[in-house]
C-alpha cells in the first residue's frame, strides 16, 4: 500500500516538472522572408491624379437624362435611318456624299485657321478646297488628299480655346451628344457662318434647302461615327465619354 502511494506521488512529481519545463522553455520563432513593397512612395498617386476624371459638370443630373434620351433616339430613330441609308446607297455614292459635306466644311476650317493666325495651314486649307471644288467636282471626289493637301479640322470652339477661353460647364446636347459651353457657342457660330456662306451662293428657300441639307449631313456624320451607346464595356460610360471628349478637345486645341 505504501509502495503504491509512493509510486503515485512520484508520477505526479515527474508530471509537474515536465509541465514547468515546457512553460519555461522559449518558443521557436520561424524567420519569415522580407517582402519588398510593390510601390514606392513616389509612385503613390497624388490627390490631383486621383481626381483626373473630376470635371466641372454642375448639370450632371440633367446631362445624364439627356444622355439616356440620346441613347433612345439613337437606337430607335437615328440608327434605323442610318441603316436604311447604308442599305440603299452604294458605297461609292456614300463616299461622294461624305466628301461633299467635308468639302463644304473646309470653309469653317479655313475661317477658324485664319482667326488663329495659322497662315501656312490656312493656305493649305484654301488650296485643298479649291482643288476639290474644281477637279473634285464640288467636292464629290478628293484629289487634294492624293496631292498631300490633308484636311486640318478647326472650329470656333477651338479658336476660343486657342485664345485661352476655358471649356466652362460640361454639357450633353440633345441628339448631338457631348459638348461644353465653349464648344456649344462655337457650334452655333460655325453654323451661322456656314449658313451665311451658302446663302450668298444662291437664294435658297430655308425650309426646302436647309432642312434636307442638315438631315442628310446628320445621317452622313452618324454613318461615319462608329460609337454605339452602352457598348464601351464600362459600367461608368457617362463618366468615360465625358473624360474622353474633354481630353480630345484639349488635344485639338493644343495642336
TrEMBL record:
Keyword set, alphabetical order: Signal
Q: Give the GO cellular component terms, alphabetically.
A: membrane
Signal sequence bounds: 1-24
State whether keyword Signal applies: yes
List, in alphabetical order, the GO biological process terms annotated in this UniProt record: intermembrane phospholipid transfer
Pfam families assigned: MlaA (PF04333)
Q: Show the InterPro entries listed in the entry.
A: MlaA (IPR007428)
UniProt KW Lyase keyword: no
Belongs to which family? Belongs to the MlaA family.
Full protein name: ABC transporter
Amino acid at each position: 500500500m505504501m509502495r503504491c502511494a509512493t509510486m503515485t506521488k512520484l508520477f505526479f512529481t515527474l508530471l509537474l516538472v515536465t509541465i514547468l519545463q515546457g512553460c519555461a522553455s522559449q518558443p521557436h520563432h520561424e524567420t519569415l522572408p522580407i517582402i519588398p513593397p510593390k510601390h514606392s512612395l513616389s509612385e503613390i498617386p497624388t490627390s490631383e491624379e486621383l481626381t483626373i476624371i473630376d470635371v466641372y459638370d454642375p448639370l450632371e443630373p440633367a446631362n445624364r437624362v439627356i444622355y439616356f434620351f440620346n441613347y433612345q433616339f439613337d437606337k430607335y430613330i437615328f440608327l434605323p435611318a442610318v441603316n436604311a441609308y447604308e442599305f440603299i446607297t452604294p458605297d461609292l455614292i456614300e463616299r461622294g456624299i461624305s466628301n461633299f459635306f467635308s468639302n463644304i466644311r473646309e470653309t469653317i476650317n479655313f475661317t477658324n485657321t485664319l482667326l488663329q493666325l495659322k497662315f501656312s495651314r490656312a493656305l493649305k486649307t484654301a488650296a485643298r478646297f479649291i482643288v476639290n471644288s474644281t477637279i473634285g467636282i464640288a467636292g464629290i471626289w478628293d484629289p487634294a488628299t492624293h496631292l498631300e493637301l490633308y484636311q486640318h479640322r478647326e472650329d470656333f470652339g477651338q479658336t476660343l480655346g486657342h485664345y485661352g477661353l476655358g471649356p466652362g460647364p460640361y454639357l450633353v446636347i440633345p441628339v448631338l451628344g457631348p459638348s461644353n459651353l465653349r464648344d456649344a457657342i462655337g457650334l452655333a457660330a460655325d453654323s451661322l457662318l456656314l449658313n451665311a456662306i451658302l446663302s450668298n451662293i444662291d437664294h435658297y428657300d430655308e425650309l426646302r434647302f436647309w432642312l434636307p441639307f442638315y438631315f442628310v449631313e446628320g445621317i452622313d456624320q452618324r454613318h461615319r461615327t462608329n460609337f454605339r451607346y452602352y457598348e464601351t464595356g464600362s459600367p461608368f460610360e457617362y463618366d468615360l465619354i465625358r473624360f474622353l471628349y474633354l481630353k480630345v478637345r484639349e488635344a485639338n486645341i493644343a495642336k
